[in-house]
Amino acid sequence: MRQSYAKVHLMKTIPLFLLAVVFSLSATPHAEAQTFMDKVRRAFDSTKQTVGEAARGAGSASKAWLEKAKENLRLSRPEYTSRANTRIINAAAGIQKVRTGPSGVVDRKYYKTRLAALDQHLEYARAEFAFLQSSPTEQIFRDRQRDFDFTLWSLEEAVAFAETEAGL
Fold first, then answer.
1. CA distances for 48 relative to 57, 58, 62, angstroms
2. pLDDT tens digit string along 60-81?
3. CA separation for the pair 155, 84 (Å, rounded)
4. pTM
5. What is the pLDDT of residue 76?
6. With contact defined as beta carbons under 8 Å apart, do 85 and 93 qualify?
7. Is the CA virtual torsion 21, 24, 29, 35 positive or negative?
8. Which of 67, 106, 110, 132 is the most exposed, having the fewest neighbouring CB atoms within 10 Å of its CB?
């Protein structure tokens, strides 16, 4: 009987001891865990706010592009092609300004890749512009114009970003 009492006592003592250790250990870092969770919540809230601001910014940029595209559809074909040609020339000048600017970022390898991509984007816009000009009918011209407007808008945004990064 004495042996079974010792076993029962030991069986009760070990779990109680383990529970006491767990509670004593968890009580100390609980404040740190709470602080950590607060940090996680703040980081999540900050990220959520930043993403919301970026979405609003993207939404406003898209709305601005849409308004310009609608305005461009109202222009006559000769007037539109004249403005589009000017915008292509301005984009080419912006790329050249970035390339020859005094910024040290121009010598970085990744930035050289960005400039090469801008050159390719410009060539694509020029090819698309030539394709647009060769449109045989007004309806085909207007259909192609929508795609070209987006190409030109994205080129201008990429050039503006490159200028900003170069500090120009």
1. 14, 15, 21
2. 666 776 676 677 667 888 999 9
3. 12
4. 0.59
5. 86
6. no
7. positive
8. 110
